[in-house]
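Entry 14. Structure prediction run on the chain below.
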Amino acid sequence: MEADPVMDVSSAAKLYKVGQLIGVLHATAPLR
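Output returned:
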């Protein structure tokens, strides 16, 4: 059972972007 490197990279990129978005929301939440 081999993992698809393209899927791994895209999913990792999505998790990274979501993580950054959550970080930005948490960072700016107190300013609202």
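The radius of gyration is 14 Å.
Filed with the rest of this week's runs.
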